[in-house]
Amino acid sequence: MKICRTTVASILLLVMAGYSIADDPKPPANPWEATIQKFEESDREQPPPAGANLFIGSSSVRMWKLMSGFPNQVCINRGFGGSQMGDAAKYVERIVIPCKPKVVVLYSGDNDIASGKTPEVVRDAYKSFRDQLHKQLPETKLVLISIKPSPSRWKLREKALEANRLLREETTQGPNQTFVDVWPAMLSADGLPREELFVKDQLHMNEAGYQIWNGLIEKHLQ
Known about the structure:
Rossmann fold; alpha/beta; 5-stranded parallel beta sheet; 9 helices
């Protein structure tokens, strides 16, 4: 069998680059599975009380000091940093519904917009989360926090605002949904994000930022 020089050269280049013709590229491992399993393991070892307030979402939730922020409430933290609205919807069956919370507080969408997803995709992912939750827990109150105005992502503000508009509208399409808009309270008089509410990366909030959130959310808790 004859092999042309071009084919031989191509094979040599692949070998030199560290590839094998027989390689079958595998998809990357699920980045959240280990975290989700830890939540599940923790719940098996010490089942959370039914009727609590469950917070789920991205790093803004993961970093939220719920015990000090809401000392008179029973709160469960299900934040996993870097996650998007679709991730919350994907895991609602595993880390939300089994806890049987009375109130679910959801913050996500920030990372979605930053990754290039459209406001409509964010809205549809929220719908998926809500529909799964209310199918099994129809009396659970769902509190949706708007995307916040982060200085480091200010260039994406128009998309973030459109996502907030769609999310607010969606929360009117059925019972037991509340939209909490944190955007206005986090802006200064000149209409720009208040940098003093954020840590050095100007994306994540400091204690002052969370104090604003605490004040806006507390009245909605069980």
